[in-house]
Every structure is written in C-alpha cells, then in structure tokens.
Amino acid sequence: MASGSGITVVVRVRPLNEMENSRGDSADGVRCMGDRVVLAGQRQLTFDAAFGGPDQAQVFERTEMRALLDASLQGFAATVFAYGQTGSGKTYTMSGPEYGTELDASGAITSASEGIIPRAVRHLFAMLDSYTASRSGVSYAISASYLEIYNEQINDLLNTSSTGLPMRWHAAQGFFVEGLVVVDCETVDELMLVFQEGTKNRKVGSHLLNKDSSRSHSIMQVQVTSRELVALDDPAAGLAGAPGNDHTVETHGRLSFVDLAGSERLDQSGSIGRGARETAHINSSLLVLGKVISALSAAGESGRVGHVPYRDSKLTKLLADSLGGSSLAMMIGCVSPSSAALDESHNTLQYLSAAKRIQNRPVVQMSQASSMAASLKSLRDEVQGLRMQNMALHQQLSSISASGLLQGHGAMSGRSTPQQPFGAGSAQAGMQRTQSVPEHRYEEARQQREQVAAEHVAAELAHLRRQNAHMQMANNLLQRSYNEVKRENDALHDKLERLERVFVDKDHDDVL
Ligand SMILES: Nc1ncnc2c1ncn2[C@@H]1O[C@H](COP(=O)(O)OP(=O)(O)OP(=O)(O)O)[C@@H](O)[C@H]1O
Ligand SMILES: [Mg+2]
Fold it and tell me: Distance between CA 110 and CA 508 in Å, rounded?
C-alpha cells in the first residue's frame, strides 16, 4: 500500500422521497446497472460500485469497508466520506435514518437500518477481538473524537460548550484541531455512545428539500493504536539476551467518517435568515472542496501537482490527508433518482468521476523508533528464513553426495561457511546534547521545577540515546548476518544449478 492508491468511489441512488413522489417525479433520472450509473439521456459512468434502494447492509458489505477497517488495525489512516446535494441520503448512508429515532419493539435501534458508522464500530471490535486472539503480544487501544464544522467554525460534538476550536499544523500530523475531547473506548458500547452523543449534538435544520438537513460537516475520528513488543533475539547474529533487545512497535491507525452537509440551491430549499447564512457557508466550503478535487484530479492525469487550495477552507484542511495525502479513502456519492434533480445529480457524478483520478500514497503511521524496530524485525525474520532455506539446501546437497551420483564429477567441491563471531558494530549515538540546568536563580520553587524538568529531559535523552545506539548495533549485526547468509544461499543455489546441469549433460550422453 505504500505506492499510489486511487480513491475508491461508489454511488448510491436513494428511492424517490415523499415530496418527489407527491410531485409525481419520474425515478428515471438516475439508475444503477451493475457498477454503472445511467443518467437519463446522457452517457453511462462506471464506478467501483453502485447501489439503488434502501438496503443499508449491502453498502457496508459490497464496498471496501472491511478492508479499510483492517487497514486501520495495521496502522493506516482511512477516510470514508459521503458527498452529494442536500437530501440525497448522505446522513442516511453514514449513520442511518435520523439516527436513534427508528426503534424496534424493545426500544433498541433497528440494526437493519443502521448506516456505515455503527456497522463499522461493531465490525472494528469484532476484528480486534479476533486479531488479539490470533496474534500474541499485540494489543490495541481505541479512542474517538467527533467534531463539526458549522459556519466555518469548529465545534466539539462531545463537549457542546467547546466551540470555535483552533486548528494547527504539525509537520508529521498535518492539520489537526486543538483541544478536542478524545474518549478512550474499551468496548463496542463505549464507542457506540461516542457516536450517538456526537450525532445527537450535530446542527440539524429543516428546509423544503430535507426536513432533517445537516447544517454542518461532521467528522468522527477513531484512533486505532496497536502495540507489539518485538524482541530482536537472534543468537546467530549476536543478538541474544542483550539488555534493550525489546522494542515496542506502535502503529497509529485512524478511521475518519465524514458526513458532509449537502450543496443547496436557495430557490429550491427556501432557506431564509439563519438557514440562508448556513447555506452560504456550506456552499462556499463545498466549492473549495470541488476545487481541491479538480486540482488533484488534473494532477492524477498529468502527473504534475499544481497548486491545491487546501488552505482555503477548514474542511479541505482537515481532509488534506484523505485527498492526495497518505490516507486510504472511499467516497460515497449520494444522488436522487428524480428526473427533476438531474442537474444536481450530474454535478455530483462529475465530481465523483474527477475523484476517481486522485492518487493517495498510504503509509503506516508510526514513529521513527517504531519504524526502525519494525524493519529490524523484518530483517531478522528474513535472515532466519534464509538460514532455514540454507539448512534445507545443505541437506539436499548432502543426500545427493551420499547417493554417490557425484563420483567423477568435480562440481560439488563443498565450500563451508563457518559462522563468524561479529564485533559490536559501530554504535552511534545520534542524539543531541543534554539540557543544562538554568543559570539564573529566581524563586526557589520555579528553579526546582525547572531542574526536575531538565533532569527528566536528560534522562529521556539518555534513554533515547541508548535505544538508538542499540538499534544501530542491532541493525549492523543483522545486516552483516544477512549478507553472510545471503552469500551462502547464493552459493548453494549455484551449486545446485551446476549439479542439475551435470545431470542433464550425463542423461544426454547416456541417450547418445
Ligand atoms: N437510501 C435511502 N433509502 C431510504 N430512504 C432514504 C435513503 N437515503 C435517504 N433517505 C431518506 O431521505 C431523507 C434525506 O436523507 P438524508 O438526511 O440522509 O440526506 P442528506 O444527504 O444527509 O441531506 P443534507 O445534506 O441536507 O444533510 C431522509 O428522510 C432519509 O431517511
Ligand atoms: Mg445530512
């Protein structure tokens, strides 16, 4: 997944709604035929999947949802977002019908009508349980946050008094929102509660096109942290029982569920006053989103990335990683089937076609130390794999020698490769100088605090220096071991090849 990966784009066509039915609209405006979408009187467009109707399960099952959840457990960031005009079915697809209002006889939310988010929550925990059971030494931690962008302002949906939150930029993390409540969730019910609480707090309003119209863009983010203790024990490479042989590889997967507010024509929605102001904000941020998609799509075609206006809206800043960044992404375009909404549906499908050309570059999110420990582990595993292969090759060769077939042929003069004891390698301490204790003596309390902090930093640096030196040493040892074993492996393969040639020649002579 490290190289380019296109965005998965699927389309969902909802059934005609009450208003469209009462107007007598035809449902022939947009139709699904397999993975193709047919616009009345226009060309067909092909997507990764296309769905018609109210069936919520098929949207989850027949898209890449499971693969995205799996990727998050492996440390990738993955984003699912719903796009389309107002009333087209985005919230229905992501959450379910007016989430929480459709209850069965026992008062529970009917599971058949649940959207992608609650289904993903359940599947995530089910996958997590089976992963934990099958991979010893790996543990997972889940936490979640939920925000909305309302009138270009960021509000915390898990703490309604927290509004107008600032957005910052970090070299490694990109754009992020400061001060959001992040809830640790140990069970599926706890994560479900986060989803329900945030969804309940989101701004909703009524207009002629949708009585439960989302007036904000919402992003529910689930952090999936995995921790694995990696012991780099490899006696043959000189790595056995040394202190500091254990390293924790920590990956930071992330799932973002984005339910956009829909574009809206005021002449059709009839929004006025506050509603009209909300509409202006929604439309202008969607306009920037459209420009970002167009710029990235053009880059996907030409191979040259021009200016991408991520910074022109809060929404596009927060989606930067999902569009042209290091996330995996799936976009679900929602449209009405009505012939009266053909223009809007056509616009949505054009954006979706452009989004299909966007290339992301998904990478596992982990710290430098974790990444080094992970590559040391894979190098160690590779060395051990080669050693096993060499043992098998030795056995194969000695059984051939024992069979006496080689008498008279000089092809098998064995070359032994004794294990070399390895030196300690060049342990490099790549860390910077420690922090000195402040020279000026102000109030005693402050000085003490600073001293404690300085000692803490010094101890931390010393620890990192030791860890770094150990990893460098382990890397050198494993690298040497790898070269040694690989040379032996190549030599054994050569011998076998020569031997095969000898047999072929001998058979040939016998025939003649
Ligand atoms: N696939 C579907 N099957 C049945 N009903 C649907 C479907 N999609 C949407 N609906 C219904 O259509 C109405 C509008 O849907 P929804 O609120 O999800 O639209 P939206 O795209 O989120 O709009 P907005 O941008 O205004 O928030 C709701 O009453 C919803 O239950
Ligand atoms: Mg909505």
Answer: 75
- Residues 33-85 have pLDDT tens digits of 989 999 988 779 999 999 998 899 999 999 999 999 999 999 999 999 999 99
- Using CA atoms, how far apart are residues 259 and 108, in angstroms rounded to an integer? 24
Angle between helices 188-201 and 116-134 (to 10 degrees): 160
* Cβ proximity of 72 and 255 under 8 Å: yes
Contact 82 CB / ligand 1 (< 6 Å): no
Residue type, 177: V
pLDDT, tens only, 416-452: 333 333 333 333 333 344 445 456 666 676 667 666 7
pTM for this model (two decimals)? 0.74
φ, ψ for residue 221, nearest 5 deg: -115, 130
Q: How far apart are the first and last CA of the chain?
A: 55
Q: Which amino acid is at 321?
A: D
What are the residue ranges spanned by the domains of the chain?
Answer: 7-360, 368-511
Q: Which atom, in ligand 1's list, is nearest to the CA of 94?
A: 18
Which CATH code, of 3.40.50.970, 3.40.50.1970, 1.10.10.10, 3.40.850.10, is assigned to 7-360? 3.40.850.10
| Angle CA 152–153–154, to nearest 5 | 125
Could you count the other beta carbons within 10 Å of the beta carbon of residue 350? 15
User: Ligand 1: which of 20, 113, 212, 269 to mutate, most ligand atoms within 8 Å of CB?
Assistant: 212
- Alpha helix segments (H runs only) across 340-443: 342-355, 368-402
Strands (E), 28-137: 30-33, 36-39, 44-46, 49-52, 77-83
CA dihedral of 501, 504, 510, 512, whole degrees rounded to 10: -100
